[in-house]
Structures
1.
Amino acid sequence: MYRPEIKVIDCTVRDGGLMNKWQFSDKFVRHVYNALAEAGVDYMEIGYLSSESAFDKNEYGPWRFCFEKDLQRIIGKEEKKIKLSAMADIGRIDLNDIPPRSESSLDMIRVACYVHQVDAAIELAHHCIDKGYETTINLMAVSTLGIRDLNEALNDLDKSRVPIIYLVDSFGAFYSEDIDTLAQKYIERLPEKTIGIHCHNNQQLAFSNTISAIINGVNYLDATLYGIGRGAGNCTLELLLSFLKNPKFNVRPIIKCIEDEVFPWAEKIDWGYSVPYMVTGVMNQHPRTAIAQMESENKNNITEFYDSVVNGSESV
Amino acid sequence: MYRPEIKVIDCTVRDGGLMNKWQFSDKFVRHVYNALAEAGVDYMEIGYLSSESAFDKNEYGPWRFCFEKDLQRIIGKEEKKIKLSAMADIGRIDLNDIPPRSESSLDMIRVACYVHQVDAAIELAHHCIDKGYETTINLMAVSTLGIRDLNEALNDLDKSRVPIIYLVDSFGAFYSEDIDTLAQKYIERLPEKTIGIHCHNNQQLAFSNTISAIINGVNYLDATLYGIGRGAGNCTLELLLSFLKNPKFNVRPIIKCIEDEVFPWAEKIDWGYSVPYMVTGVMNQHPRTAIAQMESENKNNITEFYDSVVNGSESV
């Protein structure tokens, strides 16, 4: 039995772009767009919404910005086939640079924030709501929050007009029991909201933790093709669609797109499970040290890496 | 809080050997042996117990057979550091070739069987018990069993003298809810037995399903270094030890052994998540077609593979 409230959000271009500065070809993005539509996925998160002043256009590809002209080039002349989303980081988008929804191909803007940015995130999200967009707030790095900070953040989010709030396992640190506890807490403290989940695969738990979230009543589910994404990557879309029983989902176009578009990138950039990502996940740390390790010439020196992380966590 | 009844069984050499016909060097096996002992792992499954007549010694390495002289070469002159296990397949070991435990370095013999072999498995396991060994029966491919066959098998196993019965997800087909249901059923139907779990990683769920089993009261846990094993591989030992809170476990020797011994094999043989393994897992099929696909020159033609599996499953 499926739950019709469930929505799947593909983050392939947005989260995968963190690995290659969004240097995906139009062919790649268009194939992902068509495949997701054909597969019955609900939203395609096509990139970040950033102001031109925030990043160098010579260094970063179009999906760092999500300008309307670039979106139109992907959509083409036909009617849009799938809802489009963009993520906005606090401080990287000037409110004046956000067009009204009637002039944009975007349907949803998802605001990512750390706990100290919740007020700014609500302000930005309200601005997007007022411009006509669907909106979420994705509260990151919850695994590092004390109970008081989390309660206060949920309290603020509860009072906001933002209808969808994400539980985000930024560090890939959570086990299923953590997801049970937190999903239940979010649902209890945010009775009027829809809850979403975004997981990372540091401990090979992104997909299973997404399932745990579903069992607990979470309805917005993030995933990417073949798990592409920063570091250990994300919940794997082909696994998620195969798990969901809603007959509108069809995994074949996703498999075809992986074969044609994702495999070539897998030759050029590295993502997925490896010991350094596991170590930062287990230690509940930002993966930046593991990413640096994996990009270094000594990426296989995993014992040294383990020692450096453990010794850097001595009692204080 | 940890559960002292939990035992961890490493299957690196036994299950990993399915990928390379047990052509591991003595250096490899000795390093795994020392690392597991140092890490506090309870058992090392060092190979299969087979009669010389069953396999060609020129084709298969020593851990296809587990002769006493080979075991002794790994243990050396010091006292044995960790309990050793070997797996026995029905029909591949002559009962007369099994030495009494007093003359063997093996502590445990695990009998693997399909449902139609349960009687033969009990007979073999009783023989091993009578020769002094710890014994388990690992009932494979449970995901394909009808309820009557499973009940009858569990009934027979309940009446046996075999103290430990394994729930085996041979095809990597189970979700956490399947593990919940089956683990509870095994515990209920086998009230005097200890239950074990052996998972495969076709859907990236081997580790999380092992956690689900633990939560349900399963106490014997199989894993391998870096998940090495046939096809999509197994539950990853470094993840499992990091999850378990028993202070006797120490993950560092495992990481060192992965760096020194497993990484070189990862250059030569392929295991871990890939779309063909996912497809056979989702379809609840033996991975043999996926393994053939991954070993072929067309391993990246995953859409064709998907079609062949789905078209081969039309309504009959």
2.
Amino acid sequence: MRQSKLFTKTAKETPKDEVSINAQLLIRAGFIDKLMAGVYTYLPLGLRSLEKIKKIVREEMNQLGGQEILMPALTPKEIWEVTGRWDKIDVAFKLDGDGGKQYSLGSTHEEVVTPLVKKFVKSYKDLPVAVYQIQDKFRNEPRAKSGLLRGREFSMKDLYSFHKDEEDFSDFYEKSKQAYLNIFEKCGLNAVIAEADGGVFTDKYSHEFQVFTENGEDIIFSCETCGLHRNSEIVKEEKCPQCGGGMVKNKAIEVGNIFPLETRFSDAFGFSYLDKDGKEQPVLMGCYGIGPSRVMGSIVEVNHDEKGIIWPESVAPYSVHLVSLCKESADIKKADELYETLTKQGVEVLYDDREGATAGQKFADSDLVGLPKRVVISPKTLAEDSVEIKERSSDKVEIIKIKELNSRLF
Amino acid sequence: MRQSKLFTKTAKETPKDEVSINAQLLIRAGFIDKLMAGVYTYLPLGLRSLEKIKKIVREEMNQLGGQEILMPALTPKEIWEVTGRWDKIDVAFKLDGDGGKQYSLGSTHEEVVTPLVKKFVKSYKDLPVAVYQIQDKFRNEPRAKSGLLRGREFSMKDLYSFHKDEEDFSDFYEKSKQAYLNIFEKCGLNAVIAEADGGVFTDKYSHEFQVFTENGEDIIFSCETCGLHRNSEIVKEEKCPQCGGGMVKNKAIEVGNIFPLETRFSDAFGFSYLDKDGKEQPVLMGCYGIGPSRVMGSIVEVNHDEKGIIWPESVAPYSVHLVSLCKESADIKKADELYETLTKQGVEVLYDDREGATAGQKFADSDLVGLPKRVVISPKTLAEDSVEIKERSSDKVEIIKIKELNSRLF
């Protein structure tokens, strides 16, 4: 992408109405734009990162056996009355349709997915089933001050699993933990699994995936001896319930969670199956959530410095920032050629070909945008058929021949 | 995909609450599920087709110079008051937030995109700009009886263009017509461009892309001599205004539309630019819509027979339906191998490996689902190292050697 064609621009000033690091940097770097509290537009650079995160999530969900669907955001009151949750979900947006109809904007989708899967599952032979979607969810959050970490409209991957017995459920639940850890690792996030309250649906714990950072809203107690992590909500005393060791507390961002739902929703919708003996049995369910937009915000919270964002390669909008300091048309032609050659080879390049900007502005913008590798091409480097290469996460600058560039970018 | 693992099933019965062909067939074939009038879930097969349509749209929009963004569905009342449209859009869903705040669910996005692009465009050097998104829109349609043709929540691609003068606008507008025709052609739809009312924004015509079919909601007058098409809304007499020839009228589905917006929105938001002489000038705008979900419904309306859907290759969820009639484990192994070989070669195969279904059920399902090619493998064909191959759109059945299959599938 030629930066001269990109319609967004970076901003020097920190937006006054944002207190979170992720929103400040993502807005300044031209990744997102704020429409109102907790509601953002994804600009071209931001959408590319968001889509890369979704792709990683999708791959792991498919690997886990999940089948992708897409449920509506607009849901009728009737389905929420079946489970008694119409008045129970504080953050649900409600709206009126024609003829006295009432709708809720999907804040979660158990009430849609359970009767849906019920239509197709009759026998034990039809189980297990795992379906997921990646879709925008809506929650009327009272405090939406954390940028992409707590949105009123946000991207969510929600998977729901359906099982014939506890053993099958547990097996899938454990596998989902590994899939989640894979996702966060691929996104460059170091997440741990923390036990948390199971809510009203189960006596078991639910499990949260937490990334430690000073800007986190959650408090996690971690055992220094055995490595157990627990959300402070369920910590009764500051000793490890597993080994008796001492626990330390740290702030963290919850980037995902998984819940055993038992038969809470299948019972409500009368969703049972026939076992081998033709006997009706309750279907066991689990739900598994990750917010790709929250993951994006978390990546920025833990990967930045005073100059800007430091994107992990896997989720960077482009992997190379080709910065041209060329002014003469012969040099510009060489820079253009390098851009086109790299792009044809499949390297994702953002090409700073802007004529008006100074070298200082271009370097500052490059640090702010935070692509993994910066390649500078200038009259000076071209005199030696070279470019300057630098990783965003390092201070080391190298001069290498243009023909050697390939081996450094793949 | 192994059909035995697909959680959806086909249905013999036509859903009683659907009058449109597209909804009836898509529901019976397991592509979509109805949550309420005008609101559907996309099941695994349906989502694959929808994504293929979106991909075609995206390619053409990028080719046209469009930059993809993603705007929110939740929009604040204030931006609609700027243009005076808060109370003007009948189909807008409105909802209440905290502290007396009011929101509208995006039914169109001029009020979001205009102030957004204004933030980045100051000079004639920053123009033209074209941005688009593919996103779910919400409209409280009073009559949502046409399946995917008229949804209350539906997929929409909306592009907005910004120009420094009439010439630049016209140039882009004409190019967009070709991009749209390319999209419909790639989707297997034979669309024509019809002149239509420009609405309150312009004295010019807007342009609709219309697909002729008996089930269309629009009436189009077409000149048999010069090929001019006009929406009946603006036809004053039944003679061609271009050549005086006779016009015939036919029903059609509007699958896309493009509008000159003139300065209607840039004026409202005070969006001007500085020209070469440093003088403020108004920005000219255009908007360009295609509904991928409506396109999907339209494809089914014009491509089906009494047995089911007939998908064009480009938008079929899979290109081959491999139907196995094998019962013995040695034969099943060969069928499995063929499935795996084809899949590894990049052929998109839906593999009917179901044990319980009869040959008759499998053939009926295959016709209903409507993938472009059906390949049958059975003890009879295996005895001659062959398979039976048939195109969904033809009655011709051929027996070919398995080793020759490749040349027929690529």
